[in-house]
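Quick note —
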Amino acid sequence: MTNTAIQYRVAKGKKEEIVEGPDDAAVVLAIAAADLSLGANVAYMRGKLKATGQTGVLLRALASGEIDAALSAIASRL
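Predicted structure written out below.
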């Protein structure tokens, strides 16, 4: 895992969202719960995984599998 924090936001419904990670994260990711099965790389390329923040941090986390692991952990709790 990288040392830079990432905040994950998974939308379960219009007004229900799971948020994990610090508010001052270098990258904030948002995805709908229905799109979690795509995997982080595919979801990002299809525009289902939205990201704001430092692009370098995002690309390193995608390449390392850190985002997939975190999203899988969140999905297991849904």
